[in-house]
Amino acid sequence: MNARTRGLLLLTPATLFVFVAFLVPLAILLAGSFQRDDGAIGLQRYVEFFADPLHQEVVLRTLRIGALVTLAAIALGYVAALAIVDLSPTSRARLVGLVTLPIMISPVARTYAWIVLLGRTGLVNNLALQFGLTDAPLRFLYTEPAVFVGLLQLLLPLMILSLVSALENVPRDAVPAARMLGANWWVVFTRVLLPLTRDGLATGGVLVFTGAITAYITPAMLGGAKILMLETLLYQRVNVTDDIATATVITALLVSMSILAKLVLSRLAKGRSK
Amino acid sequence: MNGRALQWTALGAVLLFLLGPFVIILAAGVSDGETLTFPPEGVSLRWAASVVAIAELRHAFAISFALAVLSTLGALLLGIPAAYALERLDPPGANIVRAVVTSPLVVPGIVVGLALLRYFVIPLGIGVRPALLASHIALLIPYAVRVVAASLRNLRVDIEDAAIMLGATPLQAFFQIVAPNIRNGVIASFILSFITSFNQVPVSLFLSGPGISTLPIEMLARIDFTYDPSIAALSAMLALLSIAIVFLAERLLGLSRYV
Amino acid sequence: MSDAFLRLHDVTLRYGRTIAVEKLNLAVSAGEFVALLGPSGCGKTTTMRAIAGLLKPSAGRIVIDGADVTRVAPNKRDVGLMFQSYALFPHLTVFENVAFGLRLRKLPDADIKTRAIQALASVGLAGTEEKLPKELSGGQQQRVALARAIVVRPRLLLLDEPLSNLDARLRLEMRSEITRLQRELNLPMIYVTHDQVEALALADRIIVMRAGRIEQDGTPEVIYAKPRNEFVARFVGFETILTAARLAAHARLPGPAYAFGWRPRHVVVGTGPYQGHVRGASYLGETVEYLIESEFGPIKAEVAADAPRHGPGQAVAFDLPFARAAPLAADLPA
Ligand SMILES: Nc1ncnc2c1ncn2[C@@H]1O[C@H](COP(=O)(O)OP(=O)(O)O)[C@@H](O)[C@H]1O
Ligand SMILES: [Mg+2]
Fold this sequence. Notes:
Chain A: One of its GO terms (cellular component) is plasma membrane. The structure holds three protein chains of three kinds. Chain B is mainly alpha-helical.
């Protein structure tokens, strides 16, 4: 038996498994979005989906939150990553460990911390009452900013890690050399660091954006039924009204948005580096 | 303030944002008060004890634990041979297989759960438990393949040939020469997969049934009607558990590099 | 040579669609030390891997000791292979690296111990048994690889550029070590190298390869003095090669040939029938090397440093004595 045959044999179980237990069911679900009520193929389900103002609002909100979280993660990510790569290798490893830690912790537990912080009797409200900033507890939970903050905390580590590994590959002399030539920090950042870390930025951007638009726990816990995002909308439609038609369309939207984000951002990463 | 100081302050703020909430969860979890408040009222472990006393939560923990162990083992069992084939044996259609095998990474979890429920569990008459296991294995296979493939890539290819030239069969070469050298990658992949499965919510959301619910799902269900610090205590315990696992792994893996 | 121990019959080797080695014929007798010499990428490693069994020929046959092994698995061929990169097992001690093959042969522990320790001693590594490969220097790692390959007493040993990762002094030392071992074990060996000096110093016979084919096969003396064509001549140090057509206009040729080649030190500088200009002169200590621009094209010459010197730009007379020239056949198309 030659190596290629052996290779094929070793690949088959995993491939077959993913196929049967994942790809085929997913494909059927996706195909369902193109099925009309009379059984024929058509875009009826999409038309009906977008006719509902609530659905429009949820799609827009999902994109808006995804974009905002990504932008904020990029800004904070560069700030943190630039400081981290400035450290000695040992402290750098330690900080990378600290940044990685939240990824390992249950997102339910992570998000619950925000309930403790932002709830009616949480830290923020207690402080506000104590300092007389307000007479009655303010509502932070079940608002869009709460979802935004929760998602940012959840996903920021991914951006920092991508940027740290990109910045580690920037030649050590690039920044001092640019500074020697009289460039100020903004010029160094936009002309030297940004082009050299474009790949890491794109990787991090894809992870954060798709993470934000496909998150379930954070919008469920911090947004609730008021601030629906696509995933929570899908769950609600299936679980409450057994509305598979809507679920198939949301599935198609989520999958295509994830793939699109990946294509666009990796194009951006390559496109201008020539 | 000069640039350096500004940089450190900013890094400190980011770290506070990332890690601060855990401190808060820990503090809230050991509160002695009757309601979830912050700052906590007194210190006690009674809420942690109360959580452990709830039979449903213990049961959910057992399910999550078993599910994480079994799905991790399943994913490694399927993923290691696949990673080996992709990295070493130049099989036909490698790129297609790579795409298929890593596809669960790019699909939202909730969709996976729904698709499996509708078009795998119901038509094939499969029970919820095996379906849950299958979905978690499919979800973890990409991690297993990726991490193991990376360790294989870091291992020189010719040592297998050297073993074979000394009389080893391909299987002996794999188990005696390759396996010990990718051990750390496999352990890392095991830990990563275990934690991913244990914390997983969206995939499991639709795949639960009477008496079959994972711990994070059970927690989610209780959040809406829990006003005491018990969920905070449970969250704190889970966070500490994860930190302990990661810390231990770092210790062991870090050390084994020098042993 | 029907008594050849190893024989390759019209062996063709491919990677996918690219042909790396085409219709190769090669024979090695029992106890013979053959060097496979050729530039990087000519197919030396590929040929070794085929003899070892790690690569299946797409055509042709490989015969070892009278038996056709073309379809025999590499671990059943009883052929030793030493890798260019050493390929030591990083997780095993030096002792366990050497003992690996013996353990697979299920020898008693006591025998394993004696043989492994003896093999390590024979390459001068006694006392390093418990170290890990990464704790050794490059030269020591190379010796471990050698010990590991010979301890199982293969019937044929293949060495793929074993010295190319060592510095010059170590190379010299290991060269004599390998010669000694080969004589002691009376083991047929194929030694791959791209270094003609190494091949000349070590081998009973040299096979010169180029682009997957054999250009010349002969004793070191023959290869050194009588290269068959321009490619081999250049490879063994004939730096001035002029076609007969070009030379015929200026000189009477001693016989029919496609071209003639001279080593630098066989070119006469200062006297002679031809005129040229010195384009470069480098002082090498014992000798001076000249690059002379002439009507034949560039001429490379090396003369004793105490001879009259010529500076760049100077006109100079020179001679290309046919008595020292090698007549060369045309190259095969690459
Ligand atoms: N694994 C491979 N896949 C495709 N081509 C290869 C592979 N290994 C070697 N080659 C090609 O085969 C030819 C011979 O290579 P090799 O035998 O390694 O040469 P050498 O050892 O003489 O330097 C080269 O052109 C090389 O590019
Ligand atoms: Mg080679």
